[in-house]
Amino acid sequence: MSVRYVLATSTGALFGGAGLAAPAAAHASVQPIAVDAYDLTAGRLVGTVAALVALAGVVIGALALARSAGRIGNGNGKKGAQAALVAGLIGIVVGAVNLAVADGGPGTGNGVIGGALALLLGPIAAVLGRLARARSRRTEQPTG
């Protein structure tokens, strides 16, 4: 509950009927501003970037896992595994922060959909990166 709402309600209670319209006016000032569906707000930009980073982590993690299994190329996929792990963790953190500071739900321009997508794809990227990293360590041949 906002401070404006509490003050307007208490003022209305003290002065009788003079404050009946005040709580509605105070509550309306806290409501999020309507945003068009195609407007790019700061929240939407952050959510979209977080989701794209997490998606890139999933793709890189899948390629690194396939490379470390010997299905693609001749490398061990260690750099790709680390990149996927970092991208997944970035997606998780930025998506969680974006959802934590969002004022409203989907459609308010706060990037809730992008943040939720980042929270969905981030752990997948991190797990794929971790699996590829563990597999590349096992298949590593000691040189010398």
What features would you describe in this structure?
The structure is a single chain. This protein is mainly α. The protein folds into two domains: 31 residues, no CATH class; 106 residues, no CATH class. The protein is 69% helix and 0% strand. Helix 1 packs antiparallel against helix 2. The protein is elongated and about 55 Å long. The termini are far apart.
Please tell me how large the radius of gyration is: 24 Å
Span between termini: 68 Å
Number of helices: 5
In total, the number of strands is 0
Summed up, the domain count is 2
Low-confidence stretches: none
Largest sheet: none
Described by the principal axes of the CA atoms, the overall outline is elongated
What does the secondary structure layout of this molecule look like, with pairings?
Blueprint: H1 3-14, H2 22-30, H3 42-68, H4 78-101, H5 112-138
Helix pairs in contact: 1-2, 3-4, 3-5, 4-5
Summarize the structure.
The chain has 5 helices and no strands. The chain is mainly alpha-helical. 38% of the residues are buried.
Any descriptors?
5 helices, mainly alpha, 144 residues, single chain, elongated, 2 domains
